[in-house]
Amino acid sequence: MEKEPNEWGPKAWAHLSAVRAQSPLIQCITNYVSMDLVANTLLSAGASPAMLHTIEEIPDFTPHVRALYVNVGTLSANWLPSMKAAAQLASQLGKPWVLDPVAAGASGFRLNACLELVQLKPTVIRGNASEIIALSRASVGPTKGVDSSHESMDAMEAARCLAEASGAIVAVSGAVDIVTDGRRVVGAHNGVPMMQKITATGCSVTALIAAFVAVDPLHAFEATASALSAYGIAGEMGMSMAKGPASLRMHMIDCLHGLDQAALLSRTNITALS
Ligand SMILES: Nc1ncnc2c1ncn2[C@@H]1O[C@H](COP(=O)(O)OP(=O)(O)OP(=O)(O)O)[C@@H](O)[C@H]1O
Ligand SMILES: Cc1ncsc1CCO
Ligand SMILES: [Mg+2]
Questions:
Q1: Alpha carbon of 127 to ligand 3 centroid (Å)
Q2: ipTM above 0.95, yes or no
Q3: Global confidence as pTM
Q4: How far is the CA of 269 from the centre of ligand 2 (A)?
Q5: Which residues form ligand 1's pocket by a CB distance below 6 Å?
Q6: Mind listing the pLDDT tens digit for each residue in 54-97?
Q7: Which spans in the chain are helix H?
């Protein structure tokens, strides 16, 4: 798609600069697979991650965070109460919180957990296409586990419906990252396909969304699109040095850390889809 100069590059730069300047504390209740990449992604962007998930600590700790990130990737019955308690407290305190509904359609337990979390008013929900379709239809279905069996564009209507029904900003990752508030829909066109070959890149971009929303909670739609673009650009720049997924993982962290204004202004590619 032809890239037009627009206001998105400066917006993305303003968000990344604010994260670097403020270093917002982000509480992450995330899956075992993703913990390392999520923490390193947040640190390389300038945010301050803390992987605290025990229910006993939530009343003391969650009130001090700038945003909460909840990811159900390795969900078990004893983690769900922590996720719900932290989400409920964040909502009560007016703090942004972001949900990653990993493999939402894989089982009834997982789907119900995600639906209960959605009831607690996440600011943003980011999933791959299959996850957003399962959540929007509230149905368990044939799924490839944590990977998507749909293209992001197939989930545009599901995303819009979920955003309308939940009041959250909904983002669908893929070749085109879709962001909607139920009315506006934009597509972020950065990134490279090899990002799918590194586990937890999706989890990490959701965490980055939490950091961007933390510094601009009143503009969660813009913060979400900006985070997806910045991460995609880090992937593009990293790809020029990578030999495969393992080195891309390393170069992406370096490129996010070094991302400058010129690169964001020239590469950010967000277009209206509605
Ligand atoms: N075909 C593609 N082209 C460009 N970028 C892509 C493509 N597919 C995914 N991405 C990017 O890769 C990142 C991860 O997206 P993906 O849809 O794979 O998440 P996910 O399935 O939730 O991953 P995980 O569960 O492993 O964390 C996003 O930043 C997305 O923009
Ligand atoms: C592979 C995997 N399994 C559960 S969570 C996770 C990380 C990517 O979502
Ligand atoms: Mg995922």
A1: 6
A2: yes
A3: 0.98
A4: 28
A5: 102, 128, 146-148, 173-175, 177, 191-193, 195-196, 199-203, 205, 231-232
A6: 999 999 999 999 999 999 999 999 999 999 999 999 999 999 99
A7: 8-22, 35-45, 58-61, 80-92, 108-119, 129-137, 156-166, 201-215, 220-239, 245-258, 261-267
